[in-house]
């Protein structure tokens, strides 16, 4: 009706007396028809206000690192993986030279090496108070002690260098925003594992310094279980560093999932488990043989 009245009014088909009446009628109908729409608009505005924070939250989710950032992260973690491999090699040499128990004290941030002759003699006297010297290496001279001491010192300092190589770049990359939320969690986990590895190393050495070796038949050695745990955690760190490094250096490609690919993936994981168990069981076996006097 409103449309018809406006049409007649525009076409001058109504007489002048009728125009005020139609004008009032149009205004009343406009008010009554506008109010519900206004209410609907107000309700929509309320929903819009509640929706805005959700939209803002979705937009501000951390994005994946760029290609150049991924390369830097991959190189950094690849370096950490290589240093973990080096730590395993140095640890093996330290064990072969029977140098692991030459340092009888431990500090989280490093020990100052002896600089003078008096310092070396003082360090040598400390070593003489423990079972390895009394039962196994009694009579070694100061020069021989210096060699085994430097082997263990190098092993410990290499571990601390790994920690510095991980923590310093991680802090820089974190500040620059190179890490997304998933990678931040991994970095925190890896840092915790590195710290635990250092503590586990001292816990292992401490088992060989305990006063539980009394007869000449007793061979002062670290606990084979603690040694296996120390080596196993090094393998885990190496695997995690290498896996994450390759993930950033070699971008993932979309591949068709087939039965052959699934079987190959399972075979790879199975092989990794076999290699890990072989290494751990080997270190347990050689330690038991050396304790029984049948190992070289």
Describe the structure.
18% of the residues are buried. This protein has helices spanning 2-10, 18-59, 67-96, 117-128, 131-136, 142-176, 181-209, 224-249, 259-292. The chain is an all-alpha fold and 296 residues long. The chain has 9 helices and no strands. The termini are far apart. Helix 1 (2-10) crosses helix 2.
Amount of beta strand: under 5%
Could you tell me how far the N terminus lies from the C terminus, measured between alpha carbons in angstroms?
109 Å
- How many separate helices? 9
Number of individual domains: 3
Largest sheet: none
* Unreliable residue stretches: 1-5, 29-41, 51-61
* Assembly context of the chains: single chain
Share of helix, binned: over 70%
The chain-level mean pLDDT equals 79
Q: Structural class, judged by helices and strands?
A: mainly alpha
Radius of gyration: 37 Å
What is the helix/strand order? HHHHHHHHH
The 3D shape can be described as globular
The total of beta strands comes to 0
Pfam families: COX15-CtaA (PF02628)
Pathway: Porphyrin-containing compound metabolism; heme A biosynthesis; heme A from heme O: step 1/1
Protein name: Cytochrome C oxidase assembly protein COX15
Keywords: Heme biosynthesis, Iron, Membrane, Metal-binding, Oxidoreductase, Transmembrane, Transmembrane helix
């Amino acid at each position: 009706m409103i449309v018809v009245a406006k049409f007649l009014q525009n076409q001058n088909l109504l007489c002048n007396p009728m125009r005020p009446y139609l004008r009032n009628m149009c205004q009343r109908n406009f008010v009554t028809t506008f109010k519900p729409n206004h209410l609907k608009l107000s309700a929509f505005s309320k929903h819009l206000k509640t929706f805005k924070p959700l939209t803002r939250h979705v937009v501000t989710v951390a994005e994946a690192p760029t290609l150049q950032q991924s390369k830097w992260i991959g190189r950094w973690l690849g370096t950490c993986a290589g240093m973990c491999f080096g730590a395993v090699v140095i640890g093996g040499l330290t064990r072969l030279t029977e140098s692991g128990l030459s340092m009888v004290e431990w500090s989280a941030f490093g020990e100052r090496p002896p600089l003078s002759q008096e310092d070396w003699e003082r360090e040598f006297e400390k070593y003489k108070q423990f079972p390895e010297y009394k039962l196994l290496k009694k009579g070694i001279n100061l020069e021989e002690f210096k060699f085994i001491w430097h082997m263990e010192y190098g092993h410990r300092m290499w571990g601390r260098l790994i920690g510095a190589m991980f923590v310093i770049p991680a802090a820089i990359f974190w500040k620059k925003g190179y890490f997304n939320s998933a990678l931040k969690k991994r970095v925190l986990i890896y840092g915790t594992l590195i710290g635990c590895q250092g503590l586990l190393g001292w816990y292992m050495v401490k088992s060989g310094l305990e006063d539980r070796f009394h007869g000449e038949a007793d061979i002062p050695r670290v606990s084979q279980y603690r040694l296996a745990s120390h080596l196993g955690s090094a393998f885990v760190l190496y695997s995690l560093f290498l896996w994450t490094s390759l993930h950033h250096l070699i971008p993932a490609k979309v591949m068709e999932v087939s039965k052959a690919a699934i079987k190959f993936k399972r075979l790879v994981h199975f092989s990794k488990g076999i290699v890990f168990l072989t290494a751990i069981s080997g270190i347990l076996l050689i330690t038991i043989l050396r304790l029984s006097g049948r190992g070289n």
